Task: structure prediction
Amino acid sequence: MSDGCFLCRFNNTSHAKLAQAFITDNAGCMTTHEMAADLAADLTVSVPDAVGIDRAMILIHIEEHSLNPNLRLSLMLRNLFKLSDSLLLNMNKVDESGNTTVDAKLVETYLKVQTQIMTIYKQNELNKLLFAGT
Ligand SMILES: [Zn+2]
Result:
């Protein structure tokens, strides 16, 4: 929580609650940047007290302040996918002879990341939370 953050400071107001509900409902289908842009556009128009609120402030709230489990799990899942993609891209190496080889450690790590992703997907209760609105 941050005193300078509108969504933290006005945590119990109806607008902040609606904003948090929007974040929770859309965490499984929107990026943090997309949610911040939508909320900034809405809050600056609909809430006169939202002085100084902008996309950057909302993004910090979403990515750093909120500990909502639905949001944190969706961020964790997105990060695991980014890590997975990066590992997959860097898995092949070209040796001094020009032969392509596979980095066994990266393959091992990639498979561990896939296991973590599958663990999250297999938890039915979490899926109900994450993808309830999608
Ligand atoms: Zn905040």
Q: What stands out?
A: The chain has seven helices and two strands.
